[in-house]
Amino acid sequence: MLTLKKLMARHPGCAFHGSQATATEAWLGEYGKYKTRVVIDSGADITLISHAAVSNLSPKPKVKTGQQINLVQVTRASKISGFITLPIFFDADKDPVKLELEAYVAKGMTTPFILGNDFADQYALSVVRDENGAHLSLGDIGRKIQVENSIGPSLQNKTGHVFQVRTKTGISYLVEKFKNHPRAKKARKSERKKKIENPVRATEECVILPNTMKAVSVTLNFPEKLDIAYVEKLLISNCGEDHFYSSPHYLIIREDCRLRISNFSTFPVKIQKGQILGIRPLSCYMTQFS
Description:
- Strand 8 (125-130) and strand 9 form a beta hairpin.
- This protein folds into two domains: 23-171, Acid Proteases (Cathepsin D, subunit A, domain 1); 196-281, Deoxyuridine 5'-Triphosphate Nucleotidohydrolase, Chain A (Distorted Sandwich), CATH 2.70.40.10.
- It is built from three helices and 21 strands.
- It is mostly beta strands.
- The strands form five sheets. It has a six-stranded mixed beta barrel. Strands 16-17-19-14-12-21 form a six-stranded antiparallel beta sheet.
- It starts with 22 loop residues before the first strand and ends in a 9-residue tail after the last strand.
- The model is unreliable at 151-155 and 168-173 (pLDDT under 50).
């Protein structure tokens, strides 16, 4: 069995100190015109270009509509969907090498250009590290570029938040966390509402003729140890001010669990099974006498 030796020593628990994504420099859009820093092995699924870098290009490439991409940050998840196509040129050890890329435009990203796994895999780009440093091997053409893995800032946006890039099909736990947050908030709100009021629901489907009243069978949670419940008046409208029906303030007893509904409109009203017809407020306390 062989044991690999570390190239750099670190104190216990500090192996990550000084670690940065491997980067080099390349020409964007046109050789010899706009040179910028390019991050090579960030782990991003897709290739990204900052909005500022796109603004510096001349002529400015057209931003096209692409797939919905999740830019996962520590504090929130934002989405980007526009991309550009452009050539990128590397100054290799013998002569320049050109790659045709698609890059999604990310606003607020301080790193000018991130080469993702999408094109790193297609062009068979690989980072080779040894005691002499690190270099980028460009496919099978026998060209390589000297790169550095400890320069510049890490992958951060303008507010200093580190981010990762995942396509929607490879969505991460952090995205799911933020995605589910509104649902959890809605569920908590629903629970609080249940503690405040108790709905009275119809247990049958029926029709109430115009300008008539009908006793509709309902179900509700009676107060503990009581066989009577107070129901508040509820005004219901389906089609506007001239088409409404209502339940009165009413006392319902367990033996005759029905609620009187009056149709004040000139049209028949259909009551659906499970429909809320009244509210029993939990704040109303009652005492039952024998």
